[in-house]
Amino acid sequence: MAKSAKRPQRPDDxxxxxxxxxxxxxxxxxxxxxxxxxxxxxxxxxxxAPDSAELVQEIFRAAHTLKGSSGTIGHQKMAGLTxxxxxxxxxxxxxxxxxxxxxVDALLESLDALRVLTQEVAELRDSGADFSALEERxxxxxxxxxxxxxxxxxxxxAPDVTALDEAAQEALQxxxxxxxxxxxxxxxxxxxxxxxxxxxxxxxxxLTELGQLVRSAPSLEEIEREQGGLELTxxxxxxxxxxxxxxxxxxxxxxxxxxxxxxxxxxxxRSATGAAPAAAAPAEEASRSAGRAASTxxxxxxxxxxLDTLLNLVGELVIDRTRxxxxxxxLGASGxxxxxxxxxxxxxxxxxxxxxxxxxxxxxxxxxxPIENVFNRLPRLVRDLAQRFGKxxxxxxxxxxxxxxxxxxxxxxxxxxxLLRNAVDHGIEPPEERRKAGKPETGTIRLxxxxxxxxxxxxxxxxxxxxxxxxxxxxxxxxxIITPEQAERLTDGEAVQLIFAPGFSTAAQVTDISGRGVGMxxxxxxxxxxxxxxxxxxxxxxxxxxxxxxxxxLAIIQALLVKVGAETYAIPIVSVxxxxxxxxxxxxxxxxxxxIRLRGEILPLVRLADFFGTAVPEEDTSLYVVAVRLGERHVxxxxxxxxxxxxxVIKSLSRALGEVRGVSGATILGxxxxxxxxxxxxxxxxxxxIR
Length: 691
Description:
The protein contains 23 helices and 22 strands. The protein is an alpha+beta fold and 691 residues long. The strands form 5 sheets. Strands 14-18-19-17-16-15 form a 6-stranded mixed sheet. It has a 5-stranded mixed sheet with strand order 6-8-9-11-10, with helices on one face. It starts with 21 loop residues before the first helix and ends with a helix.
């Protein structure tokens, strides 16, 4: 019997206990989150494709899984709500209920409620939320579509589970070819069992986990209608032995008797009524289920903290590899050393480097996740926002399988939410305005992701009203972001970039969605903090396009090492466009600032020595410029010399140092010295006077 999860140290009247171990609850929470994300996305798609039987079945199956798992741990509120959801979906699945906005709203509201109930499991604490009214609403919707349904047969009149049709017999044959055997299972509950339907459902779910439940009496539908009585008989195809099945069923509460035995050689036949079995499965499905045991063990769940630790260790190896390569080079250049020893040392260092590279590559791959983990939450957001603003929006997503490091996944969600809110609120026009402009009533928002070299590129674009540059200038002047004289000199393209300025907003009124002046500046700040960039382009009356570029990982980056006096700095290569050497006479002054002319364009300069207060010997007159760009902003960083490209491991600065302007972290070089990593975004903001 399962051991109950531990109570908090100070239990009170809101403390919850569940019929499961702590490890079981952890697995439940992971599975529940996965099913809820699937449901969130699928229910929104259902509104766009209400006639998709495959989609309805996908939603029904996910709700069914949630109901079974919540019932297994004894979370009755969650099991009851998912049962009500499933009842509605069953009516839709059987064609007796049409998918309407009311149905979708109720299902989405149920998903929000399920998240609250899932949190109760995570915290082992009753939230106090009462969703009985929501259950009644779901059941009322179901009743509206259930008129004319056939009355269920009398309890106890279940068919013989060994009476199979041709499809089920074929399933058994395929299962035997895969090495599985059919078992006849009978389970009986105690006479005083308080929740027989829940216990029978738990038993059915246990059998489903062990193999293919070809048929059961009562059927799952009868159990859900609480017409199952106290006994379950079933035909199970599995590669597990009878003792394993019996052990799994014995963990269920209120079980009085269990019988598990191989199905005898008696020839199965059609049922007397000729009806198809209640849970007959296609042959290929049974075969796939029967082979499930053969594939188990090929993948395991790993705590992300372990992956983080492994990555840190690999980072240390990368640092040591670089140091060894440096030592090998210095040994080879020095005299008086046995050349054979130097060659052997160099060879060993190179081999260690290859192994480290491979290990790093495999660790990085193990941390890679598809961006659909973020994208799956966004269709619901767009749908809810569109309804709130009375707009019609078609939301399309592509590139969900594009992979990137989980550290980036965790950070990219909020900026994308801001961009989509902006697209729905400011971009897409109301239906009437679109009609007057000769556009379809339904606006389109597209979200896509793709790889571009060592970056991920995310595009958010809409076919809305675009950005009015004149209005942006007017708002920026009114808020004191720029002066009227500066506004006059700005091109439309430059004016549009002002939407990223702190405190900027053109919203006529403050709502809970936008208009507080804390939207697009947060997007740029968060993205640039991660060594990324965001660009915007727009055509008034036609739409707006945002392009976000992010590194694939935040742990190890390619950097250009540069010297400023005796100090070494690392500039993320993702921001570098080119490097060049300049002569002092090539430097001009524009509005009191040093600049050079680069292919007809003026490139403002910033001397890294002045920015960081780094001492540079007077005789050091070398001038190298590293041209960097973030979006539409570009600058030339003046340094003493270029060292070269190198893969560096990002280390956070000590908390004692606090936040250092212009620095995003540090790295350890091959000679053991520490090099600061330049925060290009901070550098550009400082030049623009943005704090």
